Backbone:
């Protein structure tokens, strides 16, 4: 994986509810990447974070779809948050 | 000999594939297994204009990567080139995301047709999609459709016929264009050069190169096997380069760019209506969501009971009436008693009991179908995933498991909501341990008969044992059915809520219930006839029955488990139905009735309790109680399990497991009982 400075990047798991953002980078094995890509989350895709209570799967709205991502896995998705 | 054409249905979960499949094939469908796989194979056929069309419903997957057994099956089938037409279904209301499947299909040289399903939902959401524009853009037949509306099927047939007559494949040029100017282009063309003259069925080199970049295990394996060392090395170098390592993401981005372009040119800008309603806020809350889901489960179960009530009423109500009619007519005509007994106890009783049992199956399939159709089933997954993933199951398995309290056989049919066959089989194994109402009644009756005020303790113990059995089952079966590497954390879509299409659901549920009824009737009649033959005695003396003789002969063995032959026969009867278990006990211990049958519903009378308590010792009672708790649920549960598992081997495995478990517990209970009492 590329070395990117994540100082101003958050992972999906750390993002606040009702904020918009774009996916910056996804980390994980090819299996995880293939799953997450096929459901619609790729670097550059814009989304709205609908729900993140810190334990339940994170809910994002992306490409017309509500997508649930397990909390643990959501920390492997790094995002740029719109201010 | 008429012509036969094969159509393969390909689509993501929730794309409406099964609706289309069911409406096309109606009663002409067969569910089995893909050879050598634990994946369900649904095939059907229909005739249109004198041509027979075979329809293969491929397992739902999000793309063509070979990550799960389902996806491998789907891909193998497509690559086999057996289909005359691959019909790709996408959800028009989520066009951009679901077109990914089509993007993943680019590079596969197979005749293809695109169905934009759920156009009605998309239109209701204010989205306009121009199917003709997409058709022009892609050069393949494209149809705007709504699989749930039967009146739209002529359009489908028209498109399908022309798609088969003039087959067209997707052109990979447009996707290649998307890769231009991207790092991927260089990667792809370098891999293509390294691949040289390598051929892989109907797949173009661009597709193979994409899959190599995505580290697809199957494609990597085949390339590794087939290519000469130098070229293999060249590919490995490319894949190991800095860009190559991110290949999966790069191809994904390119595919979505390709998709976005289509969407931009054919659909009105999406109206962003936030699909996250107040309902969903509650439904996905980590505490409230569970309570909410639990409420829905209870309401669903009650709805099932109400729906099943008419069928149960007819079955139970008709049985005594018909039996007395048979008896009177038979006697009046002077027909042999043996014939009257057979008609009464096998034909009439068997049919009535089948009606009763299938009515619950009907209601469970119906209610589940509606929950799935309106989109709530996925919310169950969300709410209970953290609990059930420990057993290796998806969250929505909670629904079939819970409805097992109502009826095991029906709940078995409900396991179809689960996504993979491994999940379904594991849920089936767990489900057999969950007692239905009748089983609870039998266990409580036995506990209170023998242990009086200590009966509640048995209730608590029973619940504890059920959970312990879950643990045991998931340890024993879980590893094989749901391999550890397939247990990724939940990544799924929460589909938007839909209005259910009542008519279509009713027709679909009616068809499958009718199919189940016919099979169940055959099986119940067969088992009832066999048992009747074993237990019939012309003079009504139990000692003259075959069953008595067999029972006595094997008693030394069954006593090992603490069961004298009467109890063992009741235990066997319990595999037919729980009522049969009580009925047999009534006959054997009260010496009532001319012959004992599996289908007469003898209520557990007070006499039975007294008779049992005076004959059976406490250790024996303990043994029988344990054996009853984990006995095979009933004959119909076996039948539906066979249908859902699609394999006789698996039915036998699950049965063997529960026979071993129940007899093992009986053995332990008996020998502990001998020490205590």
Residues:
């Amino acid at each position: 994986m590329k070395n990117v400075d994540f100082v101003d990047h958050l992972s999906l798991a750390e993002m606040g509810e009702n904020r918009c953002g774009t996916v910056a980078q996804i980390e994980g094995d090819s299996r995880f990447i293939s799953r997450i890509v096929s459901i619609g989350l790729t670097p550059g895709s814009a989304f709205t974070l609908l729900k993140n209570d810190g334990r339940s799967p994170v809910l994002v709205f992306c490409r017309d779809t509500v997508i649930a991502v397990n909390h643990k896995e959501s920390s492997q998705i790094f995002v740029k948050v719109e201010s | 000999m008429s012509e036969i054409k094969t159509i393969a249905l390909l689509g993501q979960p929730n794309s409406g594939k099964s609706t289309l499949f069911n409406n096309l094939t109606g009663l002409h469908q067969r569910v089995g297994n893909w050879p050598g796989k634990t994946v369900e194979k649904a095939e059907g056929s229909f005739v249109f204009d004198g041509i027979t069309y075979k329809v293969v419903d491929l397992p739902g997957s999000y793309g063509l990567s070979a990550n799960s057994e389902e996806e491998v099956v789907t891909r193998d089938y497509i690559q086999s080139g057996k289909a005359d037409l691959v019909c790709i279904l996408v959800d028009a209301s989520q066009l951009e995301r679901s077109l990914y499947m089509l993007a993943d299909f680019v590079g596969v040289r197979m005749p293809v047709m695109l169905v934009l399903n759920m156009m009605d939902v998309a239109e209701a959401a204010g989205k306009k999609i121009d199917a003709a524009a997409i058709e022009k853009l892609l050069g393949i037949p494209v149809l705007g459709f709504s699989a749930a509306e039967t009146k739209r099927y002529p359009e489908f047939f028209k498109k399908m016929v022309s798609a088969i007559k003039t087959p067209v494949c997707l052109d990979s040029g447009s996707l290649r264009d998307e890769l231009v100017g991207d790092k991927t282009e260089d990667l792809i063309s370098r891999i293509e050069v390294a691949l040289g003259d390598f051929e892989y069925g109907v797949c173009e080199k661009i597709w193979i190169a994409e899959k190599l970049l995505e580290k697809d295990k199957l494609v990597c394996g085949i390339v590794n096997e087939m290519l000469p060392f130098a070229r293999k090395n060249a590919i490995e170098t490319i894949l190991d380069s800095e860009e190559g390592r991110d290949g999966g993401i790069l191809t994904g981005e390119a595919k979505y760019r390709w998709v976005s372009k289509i969407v931009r040119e054919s659909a009105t800008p999406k109206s962003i209506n936030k699909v996250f309603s107040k309902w969903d806020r509650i439904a996905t809350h980590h505490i409230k969501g569970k309570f909410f889901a639990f409420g829905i489960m209870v309401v669903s179960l009650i709805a099932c009971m109400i729906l099943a009530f008419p069928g149960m009423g007819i079955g139970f109500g008709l049985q005594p009436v018909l039996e007395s009619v048979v008896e009177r007519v038979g006697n009046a005509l002077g027909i042999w008693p043996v014939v009257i007994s057979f008609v009464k106890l096998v034909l009439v009783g068997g049919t009535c009991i089948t009606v009763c049992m299938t009515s619950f199956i009907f209601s469970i399939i119906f209610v589940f179908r509606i929950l799935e159709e309106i989109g709530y089933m996925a919310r169950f997954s969300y709410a209970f995933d953290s609990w059930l993933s420990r057993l290796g199951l998806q969250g929505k398995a909670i629904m079939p498991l819970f409805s097992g309290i109502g009826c095991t056989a029906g709940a078995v049919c409900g396991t179809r909501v689960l996504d993979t066959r491994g999940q379904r089989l594991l849920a089936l194994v767990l489900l057999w341990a969950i007692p239905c109402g009748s089983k609870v009644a039998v266990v409580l009756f036995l506990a209170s008969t023998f242990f009086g005020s200590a009966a509640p303790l048995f209730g608590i113990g029973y619940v504890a044992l059920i959970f312990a059995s879950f643990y045991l089952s998931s340890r024993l079966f879980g590893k094989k059915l749901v391999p550890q590497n397939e247990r990724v954390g939940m990544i799924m879509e929460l589909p938007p809520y839909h209005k259910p299409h009542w008519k279509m659901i009713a027709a679909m549920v009616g068809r499958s219930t009718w199919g189940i009824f016919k099979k169940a009737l055959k099986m119940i009649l067969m088992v009832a006839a066999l048992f009747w033959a074993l237990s019939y005695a012309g003079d009504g003396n139990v000692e003259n029955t075959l069953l008595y003789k067999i029972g006595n002969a094997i008693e030394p063995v069954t006593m090992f488990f603490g069961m004298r032959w009467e109890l063992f026969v009741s235990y066997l009867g319990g595999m037919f139905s729980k009522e049969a278990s009580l009925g047999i006990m009534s006959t054997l211990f009260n010496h009532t009735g001319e012959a004992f049958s599996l289908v007469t519903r003898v209520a557990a009378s007070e006499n039975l309790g007294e008779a049992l308590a005076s004959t059976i010792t406490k250790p024996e009672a303990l043994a029988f109680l344990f054996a009853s708790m984990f006995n095979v649920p009933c004959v119909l549960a076996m039948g539906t399990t066979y249908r859902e598992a699609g394999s006789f081997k698996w039915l036998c495995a699950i049965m063997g497991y529960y026979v071993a478990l129940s007899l093992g517990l009986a053995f332990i209970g008996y020998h502990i009982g001998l020490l205590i009492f």
Observations:
- Residues 1-7 of chain A have pLDDT under 50 and may be disordered.
- Residues 10-81 of chain A form a domain with the SH3 type barrels. fold (CATH 2.30.30.90).
- The radius of gyration of chain A is 11 Å.
- DSSP finds two helices and six strands in chain A.
